Automatic annotation (TrEMBL):
SMART domains: PDZ, TSPc. GO terms for biological process: proteolysis. Residues 1-20 form the signal peptide. CDD domains: cpPDZ_CPP-like (cd06782), Peptidase_S41_CPP (cd07560). This is Tail-specific protease. Residues 622-641 have a biased composition (Basic and acidic residues). InterPro entries: ClpP/crotonase-like_dom_sf (IPR029045), PDZ (IPR001478), PDZ_sf (IPR036034), Peptidase_S41A (IPR004447), Tail-specific_protease (IPR005151), Tail_Prtase_C (IPR020992), TSP_N (IPR040573). The keyword Transmembrane does not apply. Residues 235-306 form the PDZ domain. Residues 617-656 are annotated as: Disordered. Transmembrane segments: none annotated. The lineage of its organism: Bacteria, Pseudomonadati, Pseudomonadota, Betaproteobacteria, Burkholderiales. Belongs to the peptidase S41A family. Keywords: Hydrolase, Protease, Serine protease, Signal.
Length: 753
């Protein structure tokens, strides 16, 4: 059905209506659709309605879903739009499908421009409240900090009251942290002013991507539209490499600041770039003039700095320890391939006392299932791969004489399906790993065909709510084969397979880029016939659940695919852990009952869940100060315990890695932005525990303070990892003393007898 004339007429009416209320001081140049975007939207709709695993027609019903999701994407906390704004566009609620198929994106851009107007108005009002600084902290009102499920405000007065409470809460946080009124005013005014800058840098590409994602994610949660730049970022994340100079950058007060220099990169080897340096100009090659980048979007600066391997880039820099008027320095570097080693697999070895003997547990942390697809396709024998890295680490752990291995997949959101299958193959002889069912109900079995195991000893897998997709394929296969213990909390519940589909194939010119679609093409199933979709993987031994299933995980999506099952694959379990799990659970319960740090963490998790359920904070100073004092007292008590000269009697001991020690020695010679030598932070906290609130956000802290806080967070005691290591040490002890049980858990292991 064609509604284009009506759609244009409606837009004209809405533009006049919206424009009439725009104060001159907040008016920004409205964004408009760019050439090629209407074509990209049309081609995307044709692909998604035909090739998606769950094809949904682009009709009036879908338009309503897009409408709701688009407004939610722009204003998730319902702090900018009012119900009147939503009603203003109600006439197009069932016509956004025509905006796509009729190639007229004026309405979605009109909605975004209204959002920009409301954004400017709300921030201006917040700054006025800060300027006045008149808040009564003796009243008993509260502030609801999570408004995602709240209704749209009914009036401008109501939304202003929300902002009054928000500013009042932020003022109170800073006041409780010891700031005086003058300092609070300066901090908050700068904060709200800082919100305007990135908002004004949004482009038509950003708006188009937000709108197209509202469409894509209305079909199913894991379907997305990626603009050209977002597609490049996704590719880098998968292959864990890029071509550049080796600096991690961030925006601070309109400056592009060096946050980290990658060891062994062109920037690191030059010795001319330091953490804290401000990049103010970039010449993308040796023939181009310097482009000033002060105030430029960070991704635009990064695009200038990145380039082909062996090409030249010139940087204009204000040194970290110099003022804004200091003499600028110029550094010329040759771009090289940069490996993102921080996201690569890492190993550690822990020793645990078990009576008069010591057990060794090797831990492999895997942040993502990465693979350099392009390098593998080209036949590069050194292509980057999660499985290859883990296999190499297993060889090293054998030399370290570990008794058990733990694969830490916490917060591993997935990645390559091929990597999940091949990684599983390191721990089973051969056989099916996962099944895929496509939109035509055809089932394919993905199998490990490589005989033998890289590790045939005891095995554990540590998961949490952030373990998704490929992580769940691996954990489920290990569980179904009886190959190892799954420890932690129930996983995310993403049981679908996505593919990337480039839209540039439809472009009429090489200069036009339509972006990519990432959409679901299949659902994967465990070899036992069930699926991880919605329910995730349930651990054999449960640790405290830190996530909230209502707000995080597959079950939090309103349009997630349902759980289902198919006929199981034909496979032979390699072991059986059912008999040993109750024994390990009993030891686990007895140990954590005496573990103060574990109890502290459990208390904090319970407190966070209580606060999340209440979804509000008091704006009364006396009440908040009492709550803060109680938290500070708890923190000091725990800190004193953690800073004791010797670790707890039962704490696993990290075995020093000679290579790691060398790297730390090299890093120790580096200087922090203050010029002082970096110090190894003491363990003064527990991962996941509550922290003292300083009332500040992001770049409001100095870079040195921010980096120090990150070091402290990394050095924090990982109570859940320690307990998982203990569980695996217990398993080793039980298997050593009970040969009958060992023959069931590890029937194939040569030393199980």
């Amino acid at each position: 059905m064609k509604k284009q004339l009506l759609l244009v007429a409606v837009l004209a009416a809405l533009s006049v209506q919206a424009g009439a209320a725009v104060p001159e001081k907040t008016a920004d140049t409205p964004l408009k659709p760019q050439p090629g975007q209407t074509d990209a939207a049309l081609w995307a709709s044709r692909v998604l309605t035909k090739l998606h695993y769950k094809p949904v027609p682009l009709d009036d019903a879908m338009s309503e879903k897009i409408f709701d999701r688009y407004f939610k994407s722009l204003d998730a906390e319902k702090m900018f739009f009012t119900q009147a704004d939503i009603d203003q566009y109600a006439i197009v609620r069932t016509r956004l499908d025509d905006a796509i198929t009729g190639q007229n994106l004026s309405v979605p851009f009109g909605i975004f421009n209204l959002y920009q107007q409301r954004f400017n108005e709300r921030i201006a009002y917040a700054r006025e409240l800060v300027k006045q600084g008149k808040f009564d902290f003796t009243s008993d009102e509260t502030y609801q900090y999570d408004r995602e499920k709240a209704d749209w405000t009914k009036s401008d007065a109501e939304v202003k009251d929300l902002w009054r409470k928000r500013v009042k809460n932020e003022w109170l946080r800073l006041k409780l942290a010891g700031k005086d009124d003058k300092s609070i005013k300066e901090t908050l005014d700068k904060r709200y002013e800082g919100y305007l800058s990135p908002s004004r840098k949004l482009t038509a590409e950003d708006v188009f991507q937000i709108f197209m994602n509202a469409y894509a994610m209305s079909i199913e949660p894991h379907t997305n539209y990626l603009g050209p730049r977002a597609a490049d970022a996704f590719d880098i994340a998968m292959r864990l490499s890029l071509e550049g100079i080796g600096c991690v950058l961030q925006s601070r007060d309109d400056y592009t600041v060096v946050r980290e220099v990658v060891t062994g990169s062109p920037a690191g080897l030059s010795g001319k770039i330091k953490v804290g340096d401000k990049i103010v100009g970039v010449a993308k090659d040796d023939k181009s003039p310097i482009t000033e980048v002060l105030g430029m979007r960070l991704d635009d600066v990064v695009a200038l700095i990145r380039g082909p391997k062996d090409s030249t880039v010139k940087l204009e820099i204000i040194p970290a320890d110099a003022g804004p008027d200091a003499k600028h320095t110029f550094v010329t570097l040759v771009r090289q391939k940069i490996s993102m080693e921080e996201q690569s697999a890492k190993k550690a070895v822990y020793e645990i006392k078990d009576g008069n003997v010591k057990r060794r547990v090797g831990v492999i942390s895997l942040p993502t299932f990465y693979m350099d697809f392009e390098a593998r396709r080209k036949g590069d024998k050194d292509f980057k791969s999660a499985t290859r890295d883990v296999k190499r680490l297993l060889v090293e752990l054998k030399k370290d004489k570990v008794d058990n291995v733990l694969i830490d997949l916490r917060n591993n959101g997935g990645g390559s399906l091929t990597e999940a299958v091949e990684l599983t193959g390191l721990f089973i002889d051969k056989g099916p790993v996962v099944m895929q069912r496509n939109g035509e109900n055809k089932v394919e079995v993905e199998s490990d065909t490589d005989p033998g195991m890289a590790w045939d000893g005891p095995l554990g897998v540590l998961i949490n709510r952030g373990s998704a997709s490929a992580s769940e394929i691996f954990a489920a296969a290990i569980q179904d084969y009886g190959r190892g213990l799954i420890i932690g909390e129930p996983s995310f519940g993403k049981g679908t397979v996505q593919t990337l589909f480039g839209l540039d194939r439809f472009a009429q010119s090489d200069k036009v880029h339509y972006g990519e679609l990432k959409f679901t093409i299949a659902q994967f199933f465990r070899i036992n016939g069930g699926t991880t979709q919605l329910r995730g993987v349930t651990p054999d031994i449960k640790l405290p659940t830190m996530g909230d299933s209502d707000t995080f995980g597959e079950s939090s999506y309103d349009n997630a695919l349902p759980w289902t099952q198919i006929k199981p694959a034909v496979y032979i379990p390699t072991g059986d852990v059912k008999e040993i799990v109750p024994l390990l659970d009993k030891k686990h319960d007895a140990r954590v009952a005496k573990d103060k740090d574990f109890q502290y963490l459990a208390e904090d998790i319970a407190l966070v869940k209580k606060q999340r359920k209440e979804n509000s904070v008091s704006l009364n100073e006396v009440v908040r100060r009492k709550e803060r004092d109680q938290q500070e007292a708890r923190s000091k008590l725990r800190e004193a315990r953690l800073l004791s000269p010797t670790p707890g009697a039962d704490d696993p001991i990290l075995v020093p890695d000679p290579k790691e020690a060398l790297n730390k020695a090299i890093s120790a010679s580096a200087k922090t932005p203050t010029g002082k030598q970096a110090q190894t932070p003491k363990v003064a906290g527990v991962k996941g525990a509550l922290r003292s609130d300083d009332g500040l956000q992001g770049s409001e802290r100095s870079l040195a303070a921010e980096l120090e806080a990150e070091k402290q967070a990394k050095a924090a005691k990982d109570v859940l990892l320690n307990e998982a290591v203990h569980i695996l040490a217990d398993e080793v002890g039980l298997l050593k003393t009970d040969t009958r049980m060992a023959s069931r858990v590890l029937p194939y292991a040569a030393d199980a007898k």
